[in-house]
Amino acid sequence: MIASLRGACIDISGSSIVVDVGGVGYAVTVTPAHALTIRLGSEVSLRTALIVRDDEFALFGFESADALRVFDLLRSVSGVGPKSAMGVLAVMSPAEVAAAVGAENDAAFRKVSGIGPKTAKLIVVALAGKLVSFEHADASAPVSGAHPAAADVIEALVGLGWKDDAATSAVDDAIAANPNAASLGAQALLRAALGTLRPSGAAR
Question: What is the model's pTM?
Answer without folding.
Answer: 0.67
